[in-house]
Amino acid sequence: MKNLKGTSMRTEMHNLDGQGEQEVTVYDMPANSDYWLAVTDVVCPKCKKGKVLWAEAGHVPGYRICNNNQCGQHFLAKGSTQHPTLVEFPDRVGFW
Ligand SMILES: [Zn+2]
Question: Domain for residue 1, yes or no?
Answer without folding.
Answer: no
